[in-house]
Amino acid sequence: MYHFPPSTHGKKSKTMNKENKEPIFEFDFTLIANFFCGIDRQGPGSDEQTLKALEFVNPNRPGLRIADIGCGTGRQTQVLARHLDGTITAVDLLPEMIAGLDARMRQAGLDDKVTGIVGSMDDLPFADNSLDIIWAEGSIYNIGFERGLTEWRRMLKPGGAIAVTECSWLSAAKLPESTFIRENFPEIDTPAAKIRILENAGYIPLAHFILPATCWTDNYFDPVAARIPGFLEEQGHSPAAVRMARLMGEEREHYRKYGAYYGYVFYIGLKPEE
Fold first, then answer.
1. Side-chain half-sphere of 54: how many Cα atoms within 13 Å?
2. Rounded Cα distance, 245 and 239, in Å
């Protein structure tokens, strides 16, 4: 689970698309990890919304195999593990996030159900037709909504489900030209357009719903704001840390002003039986 402005990207590290060698994202991984490991949730969301999405994926089947892609420190992974009969492989690019996930699962007594692995979402270690559920809260935008849906489909068993959150327009009256939106959410579109992408990628749409504003304000922006002073102290108020803190503040202010126009939408789809 990640949600941070791509404009926080720095110059130290790149994750490469193995096919065309173009970067998926580019930023200082250490800085990102240090900041986000210090908060409970790495993106907008809530346990209640995770459970709501879970209702649509036929969750009562036994022996499920689940992949949580871009898991962060695993707040939503914990919810899935508590409510599903099966095993979860949680994947994140950053070792620090997986360390946080492992600690969370041990503390919750769920480490027998969850395995954390370090890996990139453009090179996932799952065989074709091997997963019952793919989960990605606040992370698919790192690879792209259409690309993620298309490339990950092969890993789902026929009859398997995918559930992702994606930033989308919430109002018919779109926000006027916004550099922030253009730079941070270049693929933003209406839910209707996103559902067409879901269908074109080979899924049957099962449900979609908007995450409440509190998923952003109470569960994400407030903890981010509380984290910033300690983060700056830890980083010695380095220029990179100060810039990152400023960008996080700008994102919060932008949402305060214009959050009625955009937000996260949960999209749930089914891979048809063959």
1. 22
2. 10
The pTM is what?
0.90
Q: What percent of the chain has pLDDT over 70?
A: 90
Cβ atoms 189, 160 nearer than 8 A:
no
| pLDDT recorded at residue 11 | 28
Show the domains of the chain with their CATH numbers: 6-215+256-263 (3.40.50.150)
- Three-point CA angle 161, 166, 172, nearest 5°: 120
How does pLDDT run across 154-189, given as a tens digit for each residue?
999 999 999 999 999 998 777 776 788 888 889 999
The Cα–Cα gap between 81 and 272 comes to 25
Q: What is the pLDDT of residues 129-138, one digit of tens each?
A: 999 999 999 9
